[in-house]
Write a structure and sequence with these properties.
five-stranded mixed β-sheet
């Protein structure tokens, strides 16, 4: 061949789709020699092959082994085109024909039609010589013959699919035939199994042939197999049901029938997925049976029904939605399906249906490696499972009262839902198109290696092949763009199909114009987690009714917001709170604009409202706080300096103390709300939250003290010094939501008459208590840690404190001083009090008797202070291994070591613990266990308050509340048990450290 001719040849190859031109040229020369055919006759179908290079390479390899079979197929035009179509997309079929080149003869006439279900079954039964349910031979050769014939038939289905003018329109038919082929393969394998376990004849089994023949085994297809929407390569989910006629049961007993049926099931599965010379077809998965992997492989019909009646969970009934007899005893299989059908559709009325629906949603994205999410066709966002979930959920919600939508397949179910008016035709048509397109892409990718995969290719050359094979785009880049568009449509369409029709149920429309009746809307809301659907519909109506601009915007937003509320902890309260806030803000332009234009802000609003009654109740009073959700900076807790400046400005603007304190209370509520929203949305840590709560409390007390002092202390007594000393968690800067503010009050007369100074101080204390009261978010100034406790004077002079601690103080009172920190009032007095306290709380030497007394008191506290009937293990403050254990142990170490270790001279529990760890006072592992328990108990305590809006120190036993608390802490939905186990395990480990180090 001259240089010019070679150049023209390569150009022609490039024009018809080849990319490895030099290699293709060499292979064509070789193929011409092997087959004795002209090049043009060989490459005619190349331009329509997905990958001409791969097809040519495969044809050449097969021809090297059996040129006669290849040449014979070339004589049939459709067969030759089918070969190029198959080998151009599938290395798996290339390997198959290389192993069995004689099978090429079965491609003659391929592509014109797809084998029928009967043809598939007849062909596969013939491959094992089945007669009356028994194969001609029990040897491994029967299984090999079955697998070869199956792949021959699979090639016929694939040829029809690949050569179709519109493969998108053939997806449903192809998927149905693949399911039919799977059922036929199981039928043929069952015939081999019967022969293998039979004694005598060609079998070498343990059971008499007549008993095997009398044993009825039904194979129930589940999932995509049962729905007749199978992939090219997929697990085939099955359930096995055994039975026999009464005379045989009376003769041999039911247990022997089940034993025979179990051997049959095991051998049937082995024939499909066991290791043989010919590779396995696919995995037969029987794990959807009662009790899953732990349950019996085979049960009688009565045993199945007994399990479903007594033990089954909702998801097990929902899995039965697609159940269909596919092999074995058809009559028994149909009896099984008839018996379980009512249980499927009544599952929506079961108490835990909402939980199971949410689990269905989680399984959509469960266990997907993060790196695979962008490529996942099936399980990723906007993937195949999203569509199947939406359709199945609609069926389950409405199927209880409407048997016309009882369909196994996704596409038939969509048609039925449209026909009965549950979804609109336009949305259903888009959903149907997207589903078929995703399934088409999935089919093409699985054909490549005849292996199960749901990942889109990442390499440009693989995307180009996918584009040519699917026909949905003319380049790899456009295939990817099409897929991205479909994903967005699928994500949006769930809202359009499931939530938007809810609005019509509450609209002022004539009944015939509604897409959902109120009763149907009620069912949908109940299915997604609303416990009061009637109330929810009432709120939706109030928000969306009317012709105002606000109602119009709410109608556009409400469907997606309902879906977000449903994802929250308490959707009913979230929707109610949203309605109240919307009504408070009325037609405020910024609010409606934010909801419309900022999906992030709208979603965050639904999240905080459905997660926390604490937040919801405060937002009703401060609705303008919704604006913070559109600006991350506004969610950050404000500094103490900024709050002090605002508080002082408030007091300068108001003449009366009542007016000033009303404004200060408003400041405190607003900042508590800001901190709560930040905590729920995860924009602040537990340490940042505690610091912010402490700062807000300090500023409130400081502002209150300034206002009260101005009212109570006359100018002639202005020399009086008065200060508030923070104690406990307040002193440690470790407040949580719902924490009391432990305080002590100290004064110094500075020339004011001693009695007068004491009376004025008591008035200041009374004024602080009165004007700091807040019925909405209580601020309890608790002076119970003062000397002599509640029996001692509520305020003392600095000198009296010094004298008391020098002469009379008990060990626990010195211990309480470890967290004393001045927060309001005279700075000089605070400094003097701190110097006095340091001498008591950081002694140079510790009295052993005092330490023993602290340990005795701790033991008494554990026994006496727990609320009556409370489970000690669940008490977040006083329970074993909880806050008090960690704090008492750290304080004991401070009394013993803080005099010589400067880092331990701090009011913060965690700072003191880490200082002790750094100094070697406590081992790293012990310190870490204590810190973990303290942080977890602190977080749970705050989350408990945020969730319910009420203060509680007890970890709830109610699973819904526990789940809500877990969600606030970042656990996935339905983690109540995990939250409980984590807390009990963490505190158990901390308690062991405490007992070893505290009691010795």
């Amino acid at each position: 061949m001259s240089t010019s001719e070679r150049s023209q040849s390569l150009t022609h190859l490039a024009r018809i789709g080849f990319s490895r031109l030099a290699g293709a040229e060499a292979e064509l020369i070789e193929l011409e020699g092997l087959l004795g055919l002209e090049r043009d006759a060989l490459t005619g179908p190349a331009s329509r092959a997905a990958d001409p290079d791969a097809a040519l390479a495969a044809v050449t390899r097969i021809a090297r082994r059996d040129a006669v079979s290849v040449r014979a197929l070339h004589a049939d035009d459709s067969g030759w085109r089918a070969l190029w179509a198959l080998l151009g997309i599938s290395a798996g079929f290339a390997d198959f024909y290389l192993r069995h080149p004689g099978e090429l003869a079965h491609l003659v006439g391929a592509g014109a039609s797809v084998p029928s279900a009967d043809e598939l079954r007849d062909a596969l039964l013939a491959s094992v010589g089945a007669v009356d349910g028994f194969a001609a031979d029990a040897g491994d050769s029967s299984w090999v013959a079955l697998r070869v014939r199956y792949r021959q038939l699979l090639a016929a289905i694939a040829a029809y699919d690949l050569m179709s003018a519109s493969p998108l329109d053939e997806v449903a038919l192809v998927a149905a035939r693949l399911a039919d082929a799977a059922g036929a393969a199981l039928e043929a394998s069952l015939c081999v199994a019967r022969t293998r376990i039979s004694a005598g004849g060609s079998g070498a089994g343990l059971f008499p042939r007549d008993q095997v023949a009398g044993t009825r085994l039904a194979v129930i297809g589940m999932g995509k197999t049962g729905a007749r929407e199978l992939n090219y390569v997929s697990d085939v989910d099955v359930i096995f049901v055994a039975g026999a006629d009464d005379p045989l049961i009376e003769t041999v007993g039911e247990s022997r029938i089940v034993d025979i049926a179990t051997r049959l099931a095991v051998q049937t599965m082995r024939g499909i997925d066991g290791a043989e010379i010919e590779p396995p077809l696919w995995e037969v998965d029987a794990n959807l049976r009662p009790e899953g992997k732990q349950g019996a492989l085979v049960r009688t019909l009565e045993s199945h029904l007994s399990y479903y009646d007594r033990w089954a969970k909702s998801w097990e009934f929902q899995a039965l939605l697609k159940a269909r007899p596919i092999a074995g005893d058809v009559e028994l299989g149909e009896a099984y399906v008839r018996a379980v059908q009512p249980k499927i559709w009544t599952s929506a009325a079961r108490e835990n249906f909402v939980d199971s629906v949410q689990r269905m949603r989680e399984r959509v994205t469960e266990h997907i490696p993060a790196a695979e999410v962008p490529y996942q066709l099936k399980l990723g966002p906007g993937g195949i499972r999203d569509i199947e979930f939406t359709v199945q959920l609609l069926q389950l919600v409405h199927g209880l009262t409407d048997d016309r939508i009882h369909q196994r397949g996704t596409l038939p179910a969509l048609d039925a839902l449209v026909e009965q008016g549950y979804i609109g035709r336009a949305e259903a048509a888009t959903f149907s198109h997207d589903y078929r397109l995703l399934r088409l892409l999935e089919h093409r990718m699985q054909l490549k290696h005849l292996r199960r995969t749901h990942l889109m290719p990442s390499r440009p050359e693989d995307l180009r092949v996918l584009a040519r094979a699917s026909g949905i785009a003319d380049s790899g880049e456009k295939v990817w763009q099409t897929w991205e568009t479909v994903k967005r449509e699928v994500r949006d369409i769930h809202v359009r199909l499931f939530y938007r029709p809810l609005l019509s149920a509450v609209a002022s429309l004539p009944e015939e114009a509604r897409s959902l009746s109120p009763a149907q809307a009620h069912d949908r809301l109940a299915a997604i987690g609303f416990t009061d659907p009637v109330g929810a519909l009432r709120h939706i109506a109030a928000l969306t009714s009317g012709l105002s601009r606000g109602a119009t915007i709410q109608r556009h937003l409400m469907p997606v917001m309902i879906s977000w509320f449903a994802d929250g902890v308490d959707p009913d309260y979230g929707l109610l709170a949203f309605r109240r806030i919307s009504e408070r803000l009325g037609s405020t332009p910024w609010f409606l604009r934010m909801l419309r234009d900022s999906s992030g802000a709208a979603e965050r609003l639904t999240r905080v409202l459905s997660s926390s009654r604490y937040v919801g109740e405060l937002m009703e009073w401060i609705p303008e706080s919704a604006a913070w959700l559109d600006d991350p900076d506004l969610l950050q807790p404000r500094s103490g300096v900024a709050l002090q400046e605002e508080a002082r400005a408030i007091q300068s603007r108001h003449v009366t103390i009542d007016d000033a304190m009303r404004a200060v209370r408003g400041l405190r509520r607003r900042e508590l709300l800001r901190i709560a929203m930040s905590a729920i949305l995860g924009t602040s840590t537990i340490e940042e939250m505690a610091t912010a709560l402490t700062t807000v409390t300090e500023v409130t007390i400081q502002a209150t003290l300034r206002a009260v002092r101005r009212e109570i202390v006359p100018p002639q007594d202005a020399a009086l010094d008065f200060s508030v000393i923070a104690m406990g968690r307040f002193g440690g800067g470790e407040l949580g939501f719902g924490s009391d503010a432990d305080v002590m009050y100290v004064y110094r007369p500075n020339g004011v008459d001693a009695q007068r100074a004491h009376e004025l101080s008591l008035q200041l204390v009374a004024g602080l208590r009165k004007h700091s009261e807040d019925h909405r978010v209580p601020l309890d100034l608790d002076a119970g840690l003062r000397p002599e406790g509640r029996n001692g004077p509520v305020a003392r002079s600095l000198a009296a404190y010094g004298e008391y601690y020098r002469r009379w103080s008990l060990s626990w009172e010195a211990q309480a001083l470890l967290r004393a920190r001045g927060v309001a009032g005279s700075v000089k007095l605070i400094r003097a009090f701190t110097e006095m306290a340091d001498q008591v709380r950081y002694p140079a030497s510790v009295d052993p008797q005092g330490l023993r007394e602290i340990k005795r008191i701790k033991a008494r506290v554990e026994n006496e202070r727990l609320p009556q009937g409370a489970d000690p293990a669940r008490h977040l403050k006083l329970g074993p291994g909880s806050l008090s254990d960690v704090e008492w142990l750290v304080q004991l170490m401070q009394l013993e070591h803080a005099h010589r270790i400067a880092g331990m001279r701090t009011t913060s529990t965690m700072a003191a613990l880490r200082a002790a760890q750094s100094a070697g006072v406590i081992a790293d592992s012990s310190a870490d266990r204590l810190a973990e328990a303290w942080r977890l108990a602190s977080r749970l305590r705050s989350a408990n308050t945020l969730l319910s809006g009420q203060t509680s120190d007890v970890l709830p036993t109610d699973r819904k509340k526990l789940d809500g608390i877990g969600r606030l802490l970042g656990y996935p939905p339905r983690s109540a048990t995990q939250v409980e186990e984590d807390y009990l395990g963490t505190t158990r480990r901390a308690r062991r450290v405490f007992e070893r180090l505290f009691y010795g």
